[in-house]
Amino acid sequence: MTLALEFKVEPAFKEGYAVFVIELPRRQQGSEYFAWAQRGHWMDLLPWTELKKRPRQRIDAARVLDILRVLDDVSLPALPPFVLGHDGVTSTLTVSKGMNQATFRWWGELPKEWIPLAPIVRKLEELALELTRG
Question: At what angle do helices 118-132 and 61-73 cross, to 10 degrees?
Fold first, then answer.
């Protein structure tokens, strides 16, 4: 595995969701991309170690490559200004490549300093909702 994307949305009193996308390189044939997704109360969302035991869904490489192109062009401050609140929505986006990892976590709306992440968040939200429909 060379790339992993994890996106969680954890509302205080509503249903949340999570989506995990991984890249599995194939020898001399590029890569394949798979996703796992779940919906439910944020306290009931399975951790990645448990969720990956469930069946995976193959996703179109173009969708992931589109996200990666945005990531390649993103330049962000490490921390946006301080914010405080409760009973809202906490979102977490984690990108891993090999042993390296970056995690962005925010409460409420995406901070304006991190707006370059908005296209990635939107694409992962769409994927999560599509995969958990049913």
Answer: 160
